[in-house]
Amino acid sequence: MNKKEIEELIKFVSKAGVSEVSLETSDIKITIKNGTTRVVEQVVSAAPLVQAMPQVAPALAPAPAAPVNDDSKYITVKSPMIGTFYRASTPEKPNFINVGDEIKPGKVLCIIEAMKLFNEIESEVSGRIVKVLIDNSSPVEYDQPLFLVDPS
């Protein structure tokens, strides 16, 4: 199912006056809800996602992945979303964390801005920050390494 077919389905559902329609095939599941905030929710199965990712990811992934291979004893904190990485809440305020800082689960590590929303990224591990792998105000991809943490 391509983008045009999905758009046509949305128009049809909105004209039909139904509140919700679900469509599922072997490779895609779409739920369309008529409401004020959410119109389309799309979940693609793992098989098409895996086929699409290698075409885009190899060009972006190798550079940040290199430091991760240097020492396998470190835990890699990865980006949970696509967006813009910020080390502090504003340019005037200090960074949330710096190299050498001790962290515990729940500690805010950074902010990732996605679609004009600022999402605080909290630690899920305890340890000491060994390296910050991303420059401030840089774009990040989903699952891109952000920090190296020494758990000992």
Fold and architecture overview:
The structure is a single chain. The chain has 152 residues and is of the alpha+beta class. The protein has two domains: 3-51, no CATH class; 64-150, OB fold (Dihydrolipoamide Acetyltransferase, E2P). The protein is 25% helix and 36% strand. It has three helices and eleven strands; from the N terminus they run H-E-E-E-H-H-E-E-E-E-E-E-E-E. The strands form three sheets. A four-stranded antiparallel sheet has the order 4-11-9-6, with helices on one face. The N and C termini lie far apart (49 Å). Mean pLDDT is 77; it is low at 36-54 and 56-62.
Draw up the topology in text:
Blueprint: H1 3-16, E1 20-24, E2 28-33, E3 40-44, H2 46-60, H3 62-70, E4 75-78, E5 83-86, E6 102-103, E7 108-114, E8 117-122, E9 127-132, E10 138-140, E11 145-150
Antiparallel strand pairs: 1-2, 2-3, 4-11, 5-7, 5-10, 6-9, 7-8, 9-11
